Amino acid sequence: ASNSDFVIAQGEPTSHGMLEADWAGFIVYPNPASDMVNIEFSLSREEPVVITIHNLVGMELETIRIPSCPAGTHRIQHSIDHHPAGTYVIRCLTGQKVRSGLLHLLD
């Protein structure tokens, strides 16, 4: 998928009133989700970011690459309605950190 498939917004995390998974500054909400998921992360400096979605067997299903992401808090809205219901691993790799957790998709 290309970056044109994603909406990237910079700013402070907002109060959204939904359940979320927060893995040390890497927030995915709502979780569980059915059609769209928000991915928030913070960077202390400009660096590349790669976000991947894997099935539980470890197969990489999607990759979001941001070659140069400025310092600050960022949010990506990503459509997930093309994946079947189930549990997935979502991973965020920045220049210095790897954060990952489970994403639950509903019908």
How are strands sequenced across the largest beta sheet?
A: 1-7-4-3-2
> What is the approximate shape?
globular
> How is the biggest beta sheet arranged?
5 strands, antiparallel
**Uncertain segments:** 1-20
The span between the termini is 22 Å
Counted beta strands: 9
How many helices does DSSP assign? 0
Residues in helix, %: under 10%
Helix/strand structural class:
mainly beta
How big is the Rg? 13 Å
Helix and strand succession? EEEEEEEEE
Overall pLDDT metric? 81
What fraction of the residues are assigned to beta strands by DSSP?
over 45%
Could you walk me through the main structural features you see in this protein, from its secondary elements to its overall organization?
- With about 110 residues, the chain is an all-beta fold.
- Helices cover about 0% and strands about 55% of the residues.
- The chain contains no helices and 9 strands.
- The chain has strands at about 5-10, 20, 25-30, 35-45, 45-55, 60-70, 70-80, 85-95, 100-105.
- The strands form 2 sheets. Strands 1-7-4-3-2 form a 5-stranded antiparallel sheet, with no helix packed on it.
- Strand 2 and strand 3 form a beta hairpin.
- The chain is globular and about 40 Å long.
- The two termini are about 20 Å apart.
- Mean pLDDT is about 80; it is low at about 1-20.
